[in-house]
Amino acid sequence: MKLDGFGIFVKDMATMVRFYRDVLGFGIKEDENTSNVYLEKDGTLFFMILLCNK
Which UniProt keywords apply (predicted)? Predict the structure, then answer.
């Protein structure tokens, strides 16, 4: 069984992008300044969605 992708909700997109890119080695698929960011590593797609506090 192979995991094709997964996603999480985040409160601080810039911090999370830096962690997944710089520490875990994910490649960025989209601009990190948006509310949705795609990252990829070893064929697995990772999706982060900015959680808005109201």
Answer: Dioxygenase, Oxidoreductase
Q: Is 20 helix (H, G, I), strand (E, B) or coil?
A: helix
- CA distances from residue 54 to 7, 11, 14 in whole angstroms, order as listed: 21, 12, 19
Q: For residue 23, what is the domain's CATH number?
A: 3.10.180.10
The residue range of the domain holding 15 is 5-50
pLDDT digits (tens, 9 = 90+) for 11-51: 998 889 889 889 998 888 676 678 899 888 888 888 999 99
